[in-house]
Amino acid sequence: MSRHEAGSHAKGRAKRRCKKDQTWKQSGRKSWKSAKGGVEINKGHILLKHPKGSTVEILLYGATVISWKVADESGQLKERLFVSSKAFLDGSKPVRGGIPVVFPCFGAPTHPEHSKLSQHGFARNEIWSFEKVVMDNEAGVSVRLVLDPTANQKIASIYTKSFRLTYVVTLAAHQLSTDLHVENTSPSDIIEFQALLHTYIRAPADDVRVAPLQGLSYYDKTEAIDEARATPKTETRSEVDVKKFTDSVYENAPLKYKVTWSSGGIEVKAKEFKDVVVWNPQQEGLKIGDMEADGWKHYVCVEPGYVRGFVALEPQKTWIGQQVLTVIQD
Questions:
Q1: How confident is the model at residue 124 (pLDDT cuts 50, 70, 90)?
Q2: Is 272 a catalytic residue?
């Protein structure tokens, strides 16, 4: 067989696989499984299953990752993300936990173009579409989700900019990658936005440490007055803990962090997310309605984002922010 014939056959197989993977969308069925069994969809939930046992669960609502399980040294699957036992998983409000997607504003909106938006924007509380299986083999399992405002009048009524969001979630044996693609579909207008992955890492809050953040400029959102919250501080600690109420926005961060505690650890790598937020409410968590009484004891949020200033994306261009979580010790 010539190289041209081999290439044609490969393209044909790829088209057939793609056609199979579109079947769920076209049929309107509530449940579906990929040909190799690594991807299952059931009533708005997506389950990824790696051949070596690790799993990821994603809601189409908000494209929120709500579970990431990786086997520990004994071979038992262990949950690596925290989701509140009081979290709403029915699509009625953003999920408290997992990895919510924040776009196009972080916190309360400050940009004039975001004036109609609620806190953290709309990406985390809209229903995304399953587009395709990107990969399903020994190396990993990956899916692509899409949020297209041209098919969503609710978004169009509060945000007039032209864009398209694509979210690629990839599961490897001991690693989870989440890639947010922001496409400016306008032929002439720049769009300005913020983006962040609000990752809740399951960890003992009184024991966890985050590094390296020493020497970075940060903004302490726990300060009581606006002037203090807007005044940068310099991080002096070699390892940052969350033994007290912590809500710190580090700017121009190193894009690679180790989140460790006495019995475990997660490495967080980022691309294009130039900032990172470290958050744990401690006793302030008692004021959070969809959080159990001692929920704050069981997680730390380490959130790669672009939140100091705004990405200015040129017409017909795409920006990609990536987070990669890796289990580094058990």
A1: very high
A2: no
